Amino acid sequence: MPRPKTLPNEEVLDAALAIMRKEGPDALTFAALSAACGLSASTLVQRFETKSRLIQAALLQAWDRLDRLTAELATSAPKTPEGAVALLVGLSGDYGGIESYADDLLILREDLRDPALRARGAAWRDELSAAIEERFEGAPATPAGIGLMMAAQWQGALLWWSFDPRLPVTDFVKMSLERFVAAFTEAPGGD
């Protein structure tokens, strides 16, 4: 079968991300990507120049997708504390099982190493926190900064789940976030 002459960057970057998820970022080479997508290594070098730019492009595309998913979930989740839980549970479904989650932590390392990717992460944190905050507007006794606090609780729940992944991640996250919301929405001393 002949090699394809062209392939959209989106598909090439999907293949790059798949390699990173399956084998880790260090396994992503122009030769490995060539074998995965069918374009010649020289064509890939012309497009992306260096391995670090290739990784950055693949992860920026992943951030774009996460931004879109977050916006979609924020549009559909009710503007209630329960809607905040639903939004974060919806984002948790993308993690899959423990092996997938563990592999994605290797990719997170790449996000933390690159200033442009760190900036994307910080921007997403702000968008997500604001979307969560909207769901608590009008709720009694809601502390300032509840959006970031709940996002941090969510990330912590994902990490704690990873040490004992007997439940599906979405079930564990939902239970954890419901307890978090209850701490702020139930009357003190009440049931």
Secondary-structure blueprint:
Elements: H1 9-23, H2 30-37, H3 41-48, H4 51-76, H5 81-92, H6 98-113, H7 115-134, H8 146-163, H9 169-185
Helix pairs in contact: 1-2, 1-4, 1-6, 2-3, 4-5, 4-7, 5-9, 6-7, 7-8, 8-9
- Measured by DSSP, the beta-strand proportion falls in under 5%
Write down the overall geometry: elongated
Mean of all residue-level pLDDT scores: 91
Number of helices: 9
Please identify, by name, the CATH architecture of the largest domain: Orthogonal Bundle
Rg: 20 Å
Low-pLDDT regions: none
Q: Would you state the CATH class of the largest domain?
A: Mainly Alpha
User: What name does the CATH topology of the largest domain carry?
Assistant: Tetracycline Repressor, domain 2
> Helix proportion of residues, in percent?
over 70%
Number of distinct beta strands: 0
Q: From the structure provided, what is the oligomeric state, counting identical versus distinct chains?
A: single chain
Q: Structural class per helix/strand content?
A: mainly alpha
Query: Main β-sheet: number of strands, strand sense, barrel status?
Result: none
Name given to the CATH homologous superfamily of the largest domain: Tetracycline Repressor, domain 2
- The arrangement of helices and strands along the chain is HHHHHHHHH
The span between the termini is 67 Å
Task: Please give the domain count.
Answer: 2
